[in-house]
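Objective 1b: paired records.
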Amino acid sequence: MNWESPHVHPLDLTPDGANLLAVNTADARLEVLATHDGGLARRASIPVGLDPVTVRARTASEAWVVNAISDSISIVDLATRRVRRTLAVCDEPADVAFAAVPQRAFVSCTTSDRLLVFDAENPGEPLAEVPIAAEEPRALAVSADGSRLFVAIFESGNGTTLLSGGRRFDALQPPGSIPPDVVSDPDGPHNGLNPPPNDGFGFEPQIDADYLPGGGHPAPEVSLIVRRDELGRWLDDSGAAWTSLVSGAQAAQS
């Protein structure tokens, strides 16, 4: 409703279980709720940075809040109910996790695709920056024994790519435009048929012949998502291979 940044880890319990912490993203606050008798009671509402998306309780009295728009970490003293320190980080931070001995705080930064490493006990300038070879690292998790840090990636790693299509008759996209209209390329596995079949050589559900190419009202041409299989082939939903046009000798055509 308010165009808030997406949450990553918006709730956390303090290690003693006495407080539930929640980010109030729209109002740029950390809400502190006391837990007792199976219920909750509001204890404090603490101003932090803009668009808090993550909170992690490092101790029973200290919480780290990740502010996506302010590009900062608010370190909150839960006893005094105030921010005791603000750390500047890279663009659009998403999460923080604590691991290692001596303890380190790891902060994921989505736009710069890296982790920042801080001394959790005495934070100041980052101790290190760790590049992540992926697009938008977000959520973090630590193994039970504390020896490994896991990084979840938001926009890469699902083994798919997009092939452009449906642009041959677009006056705003003249021949030679980038990306090329490869789905309609006669070198493709469907000999340029667009829309391409999604069930072997046919369509499921069936398409009325009037809407097929050559019919009275042909369906609009489309782009296509293909997925890489374990053999490195790029296949569409019908099982047809687009490999030569994606990563092979004809890749320039896509």
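Objective 1b, second protein:
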Amino acid sequence: MEPPTGADCIIIVSGLPRSGTSLVMQMLAAGGVPPLTDQKRGPDENNPRGYFEYEAVKQLQSGAPWLDEARGHAVKIIHLLLRHLPLSGHDYRVILVQRALAEVLASQRAMLARAGKVAAADAALEQMFSKQLAAAEQWLSEHKIPYIVVRHRELLSESRTVAEEIAKFLGRDLDLDAMCAAVDPLLYRERLT
């Protein structure tokens, strides 16, 4: 299904934590889509280029008066909060970032280890994350919200192709060279295969 285009749509970048959502936000910003972010969570060892978060998103289930500010912007929303998006009055395009679950879990373990914390058991998390992602895609489909799945590995190995697919999906003339330049393969840590 070809989504309608519009400069006022709200571009949502979603996925599991540590799946590459910040990278997609960087690519969109480089390509010409302004990010909706408050810079409250700055760059650190886990995300040297920053998280591109907007604190008010965390309260989405309680309401989203900030959504009008997001028109024409990209905003990062964790996969679990997608179902709290208001279904009327807004035009969404969702970029759902997926990464091999083993790599997501390895990245989360490394992030927690740097903070002196211990991660939960991988098997339980992998099953839970798999169900959550399937539920997010089902919700988007049921509510006819246009979305595209972008795979983390392809972001790094086929950046130009992915950038072109994103631009086509959004119906926007993006700076593809700048989007590709935003990809730094050295930041692909916890690569398992």
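The first strand starts at residue 10 and ends at 15. The first helix runs from residue 21 to 31.
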